[in-house]
Amino acid sequence: MVDSYDDSLDTGEKSKSQVKRELHALVDLGERLTTLKPDLLAKLPLTDGMRRALADAPKHTANIARKRHLQFIGKLMRDQDTTAILVLLDQLDASTRQYNERFHNLERWRDRLIAGDDAVLEKFVVDYPDADRQQLRSLIRQAQHEVAQNKPPASSRKIFKYIRELDETQRGLR
């Protein structure tokens, strides 16, 4: 006699634990949305009920109330276009990473300029042709003097601000 019992789960149904994982993922996504600023939330494709629930989230400060509200947001997330939301959040994360990378690059420029190598200054002027070499040298000298005197780094901040303004001008952000 041939036994036709098949042990595989090819029925197309999700297991209970898979459904739970997906629901927890929706709650986590909803919790992430509660941390976004209103102008960023306005860019997301959300229903009015979801927008109200996200606006109400900061009002729930007690742990149990917050947890219950996050569960409610997770329930509302089932009716949302989560793929579009995730794509927009990924773009937001990418732009944040790009901004941080540019910020760190400008900090490295500032630190190398203050280190006092003329070759670095020449390279900077080549990369940023709008830079005022005389003003930059003056700020560098002041920053080096502040470091030698153990004073607060006011000139270092001015250099960074100047470099950031040059970078924004060159990128067309200003």
From TrEMBL:
Its main location: cytoplasm. It is found in: Cytoplasm. The keyword RNA-binding applies. GO terms for molecular function: ribosome binding; rRNA binding. GO terms for biological process: assembly of large subunit precursor of preribosome. One of its GO terms (cellular component) is cytosol. Keywords: Cytoplasm, Ribosome biogenesis, RNA-binding, rRNA-binding. Pfam families: DarP. InterPro entries: DarP (IPR006839), DarP_sf (IPR023153). It comes from the Bacteria. Belongs to the DarP family. Member of a network of 50S ribosomal subunit biogenesis factors which assembles along the 30S-50S interface, preventing incorrect 23S rRNA structures from forming. Promotes peptidyl transferase center (PTC) maturation. This is Dual-action ribosomal maturation protein DarP. It comes from Pseudomonas fluorescens. The lineage of its organism: Bacteria, Pseudomonadati, Pseudomonadota, Gammaproteobacteria, Pseudomonadales.
